[in-house]
Amino acid sequence: MKILVLTDYFPPHVGGGVEKVVFEISRRLVRMGVDIIVATLNTAMAKGFEILEGIKVYRYKPISLTETTGVQLTVSLSLPLKIVEICKLEKPDVIHANNRFFSTTICGALLKKIVGKPLVTTLHLGPMLLNRKFFDFLINTYEKTVSRWIIQSSDKIIAVSNSVMKHALSLGAASSKIKVIPNGVDLDEFKPRREFKKIGVKKIIFIGRLFPNKGIQYLVKAAPIVLAKHPHVEFVIVGRGPMEAELRNMVKRLNVEHAFKFLGIVPSIPEVMSQCDVFVRPSLTEGMPLTILEAMACGLPVIASKIPGSSEVVKDGETGVLVETGNVEQLSNAIIKLLEDENYAERIRKRAYEFVKNHYSWDRVAKEYLKTYNEILNK
Fold it and tell me: For residue 211, what are the CA distances in angstroms to 46, 81, 208, 249?
């Protein structure tokens, strides 16, 4: 079996969840005997072609529009012709696209009839909301047109959570075409540290792209309230994005610059997580937040927004803490409680780890993908 995987981002590019999901699943499918060919954009200036852990990777020259638009957007003018060339050369059985907002996914839907292969599309995101009127208008228009067309063009839709499945249905997907396959976590890579320190500097970590929908701005606003009670707390920010300059200015205005460390892209997420005490992801929208699963696997108590996607893995008071979106007071109070009530934090840590260990694994995810491909080809 040969699968052509389309994704705008792929290692060595780092910074988001989709590329990690695609890589983790692809490498396991290769071990199961599946030929995986990836067509992607060369956002990290890597080799134009290489074989990475058995995966054939074709990379094409990108044009980044992220800084211009303020949202993550990369395109390639040559990509449609290149995908046709790959199909002629590799003769895949199935084309698998990722993320309805990716330019590679649009190409996959455009070229489906030309290459004559079934199209699977994984939806990694539910409803998008940036709280910026112009962008929200554009996204809504895109959803009603392009997203609907992509879904109608796909032979199978994989949703990473129940909330994403519901959004796919709202965009016109037939229920018979949708399959829910959640993301996974590598428990060998992400594991709890032996003991959490009870004294000394406590570290609050945020990991994600620095975009408005990830809610990092609310963590910054909550910092002065937390620091008023716990002046030695440190806020660790991992990731890059168009909001970085704005966030740095915000911490200066709030006089909390001394408490923030902007690390950008780090070589090892597990290593940084192992040095922290609380994980915060106050997003406005999520599909199936990979970093939340990874934080839970590391034994970190998680604070997340009470939104679809996050709330499927974070059970309030059990496997984490949920707060209302944009509610800075709730967010700061949740952080303070986890810092002050060690028994409460420890209980959440243990339950979260057990939950992830018992329900999420990349091997299980890869088997479900293989099963999906076989179903499509047999049909």
Answer: 25, 32, 8, 15
